[in-house]
């Protein structure tokens, strides 16, 4: 970090490609643009950049008093996910007789181009602006020379034909790149993807990260790139398998399915009476916490292995295990206070797609939500070395008042009339079950659906018409020998 004598020297000089001074304390766009530009270091000097808050253009101090709130606001820029890839920066307060100075010291990124809300900011001398096409190309080539992670390496033998280009253009690019920048971008898809870290122009092929995120068949090249869900009866793997599902395909399509599956099938909710007039709703496993743990497993896993992410549910707990132990700077002693990224480009894409909200904060919120829901804290197992496991216990509050339907206690016998009653399901739940069955068996018939879901064929016909009209499914081929295609 910069020292006080060094800061005094910087204040006595003019602004440059590595120094920006400001008296503003609330112009977050200006701060983020400066940090983004310093991260890109378009000149290739390798020098750190300095955002100095509390100083005039001539170097004189403004009399600012730096409080904890301002320190926290500037420090949070690193992890709020608006600048991607994450900037490497330190924030320090300096006290002078004429006022305080807050300095954000920013290191050049190893993975440029860096974007702030979809725009690449650079500095040429004291000038700050959005990068030109030529400047963006320089930054892209620099990243290729600095490749260290597997997701940034070329997936040799692949072409853009192995990617779902329409999905990229419709779902990803509008979220990753600012609308006006994307409208003016007339480059081919290869160069567009290269600027985002998903195409290697040297080998003329997509990267491993692109195949994982947008590939038509990721398992063809990365054999373990799927998520395996299994519901065991009992408390270990010796029990019978009640349900299983393989979430296969590119992450851009798989993540929404996993999100829905956790919300509808895992995070089951029950009202628990807490007084005569009041009830509280508790989940078997809280939706957000479970989703966060599984998304972290997908984001941080080792994609070089043939093993999938394991998402196993037992009577009393959920276990999530991903191939690849703790990575980089992270150790059992500093987890979760220190973070590092095995797959920085996949992590960035998951943030863009909305499946990661903020970096480095998820575990704390997970533990809080689990405690409030009665699950107790998640248990992280670092002993497996080549794998990472987290255990989430079932909510004790969910099991109160006889609501725990899966406990080993003997259930009271139902009267003959009640035994014939079917549990009611919401229309949305029925539609989701239909789509999930079609994903595993595209040739499924209406009669088979009725049998699997224990409903009448007329009821199934109604839901099929509804899903078709909504554009979620489509039937291809003859009525009796065709197949269902999931459109979403």
Class by helix and strand content?
Answer: alpha+beta
Total of DSSP H or I helical runs spanning 4+ residues: 16
User: What integer is the average pLDDT?
Assistant: 88
Let me know the number of strands. 20
User: Domains counted in the coordinates: how many?
Assistant: 4
Task: Describe the strand arrangement of the main beta sheet, using strand numbers.
Answer: 12-11-15-16-18-17
CATH architecture classification of the largest domain: 2-Layer Sandwich
Strand content: 15-25%
Overall spatial form:
globular
Tell me the major beta sheet.
Answer: 6 strands, mixed
CATH C-level of the largest domain: Alpha Beta
- Rg on CA atoms, Å: 26 Å
Helix content: 25-40%
End-to-end distance? 49 Å
Q: CATH topology of the largest domain, what is it called? A: Heat Shock Protein 90
Low-confidence segments, given as residue ranges, are 402-421
Domain Schlafen AlbA-2: 15-129
Region (Disordered): 405-429
Biased composition (Basic and acidic residues): 408-429
Organism: Fermentimonas caenicola
3D architecture notes:
InterPro entries: RecG_C_sf (IPR038475), Schlafen_AlbA_2_dom (IPR007421), Schlafen_AlbA_2_dom_sf (IPR038461), WH-like_DNA-bd_sf (IPR036388), WH_DNA-bd_sf (IPR036390). Residues 15-129 form the Schlafen AlbA-2 domain. It is built from 16 helices and 20 strands. With 488 residues, it is α+β, with helices and mostly antiparallel strands. It folds into 4 domains: 4-130, Schlafen, AAA domain (Methyltransferase, Cobalt-precorrin-4 Transmethylase, Domain 2); 147-220, no CATH class; 226-411, Heat Shock Protein 90, CATH 3.30.565; 427-486, Winged helix-like DNA-binding domain superfamily/Winged helix DNA-binding domain (Arc Repressor Mutant, subunit A). The strands form 6 sheets. A 6-stranded mixed β-sheet has the order 12-11-15-16-18-17, with helices on one face.
